[in-house]
Amino acid sequence: MQTNFTEEQLKIKDNKSSEKIFKKCVHCGMCNATCPTYEILGDELDGPRGRIYLIQDMLENERKPTSNIVKHIDRCLSCYSCMTTCPAGVNYMHLIDHGRKYIEKNYERPFFDRIIRNSLSKILPDSKLFKLSIFLVKLGKPFKFLFPSKIKNMMDLMPVSFPKKVLKIKEIYKTKNKKRIARVALLTGCVQKEISPQINESTIRILNRHGVEVVVPEKIRCCGSLNHHLGKNDLAHQDFINNINIWHDEYLKGNLDAILSNTSGCGTTMKDYGFIFKDDKNMKKKAKKISELTKDVSEYLSENLNLKFKKKEKKLRIAYHSACSMQHGQKIHSQPMNLLEKTKNEILEIPEGHICCGSAGTYNILQSKIAKQLLKNKVKNIESLKPQIISTGNIGCITQIRHGTNIPILHTIELLDWYTGGPKPKILNKL
């Protein structure tokens, strides 16, 4: 793609990075073939190629974003599917992140839209505010019909209550009756640790059982993904820098082998820290190291541990849903499936498995109409397999898919924990 940035514009580091990406694009349109929003809406501007044109035009002409431009950029799921398809290696996500940053700086959203986005930005990463919001949602449910659609969607997705936590919250989880062979840090997730603490508990148990000590630094905050994808870079960078510094200090002690994420959306952003801080003299080396240390939990289990599986009497049909951030963002394909197959159950691949379920962080709240259509399509494909269980590696997908089907859905790590000596997940007690 030909670019027309001025020398002055290229002095801006973001522009310089984006120009290199623009130049890789050959206009082939293969990205549109796998784009969920293009598939549903059929509009060129609702596919990656169209959005690339919009972003390039904004940046080169220093154009003030219009509501129409913002609409098309906002409709992007950040699912990374186009990057898997692209034959030219265009890093579309870095372009869309730049576009969102530019919009956040140069466009004033309608008042109500600002309220929603700012609320999500502050509530979801903060445990105390999140718990308060659940309480307020309970009070407001009888009056739900009075609220605008985006508020209704948010209320529908909120949990009714918080599950009881089994493991005591602490910074270090030591191995029991097993010699320590490794030490890892675990990102427990913002919303996940409150609404599905069993995911972290399963992760810690299976690691401890196989000789891995787990550290959960008290001062670790949100991975920054939420605000990053909302274009709120200042807030995102506060979380980025806080976490990078804490993890790097742990690494310098000489006893940190990996940083694990059991939320694939978080892991994808963490693996991108190196790029985000590539021009920051103070942070780039630290950020690069943290990105190198980051692994999805399924990736780590597959590559570093010899799991001891226990045979169960009943063979189950399990449909595996690969989150977009897992398969497209982190390029992790075979590891979760291979681990699940070792349970000796029937593991099923979902038709059109490369297409997003519609969760995509806050997308199912901000773009509910499209998200609901994607969910409908995803559930149809899952239910066509007639599985007894759905397994996936991302809390956002679990929350989304759960609202479309009665088939039990749980994190892959919960199944692996059970099949290697952990407790049976409560959601499966009726099976």
List the helices and strands and how they pair.
Layout: H1 13-24, H2 30-33, H3 36-41, H4 48-60, H5 67-74, H6 81-85, H7 92-106, H8 111-123, H9 127-140, H10 149-157, E1 172-173, E2 182-187, H11 192-195, H12 197-209, E3 212-215, H13 225-229, H14 233-252, E4 258-261, H15 264-270, H16 273-276, H17 284-293, E5 294-296, H18 297-304, E6 317-321, H19 324-329, H20 334-341, E7 346-349, H21 363-366, H22 368-383, E8 389-392, H23 395-402, E9 409-411, H24 412-418
Parallel strand pairs: 2-3, 2-4, 4-5, 6-7, 6-8, 8-9
Antiparallel strand pairs: 1-3
Helix pairs in contact: 1-7, 4-7, 12-24, 14-17, 18-20
Task: Please give a structural write-up.
This protein is α/β, with parallel strands linked by helices and 431 residues long. Among the domains are: 9-106, Alpha-helical ferredoxin (Fumarate Reductase Iron-sulfur Protein, Chain B, domain 2, Orthogonal Bundle); 309-428, Rossmann fold. It is 51% helix and 8% strand. It has 24 helices and nine strands. It has helices at residues 13-24, 30-33, 36-41, 48-60, 67-74, 81-85, 92-106, 111-123, 127-140, 149-157, 192-195, 197-209, 225-229, 233-252, 264-270, 273-276, 284-293, 297-304, 324-329, 334-341, 363-366, 368-383, 395-402, 412-418; strands at 172-173, 182-187, 212-215, 258-261, 294-296, 317-321, 346-349, 389-392, 409-411. Strands 1-3-2-4-5 form a five-stranded mixed sheet. A four-stranded parallel sheet has the order 7-6-8-9, with helices on both faces.
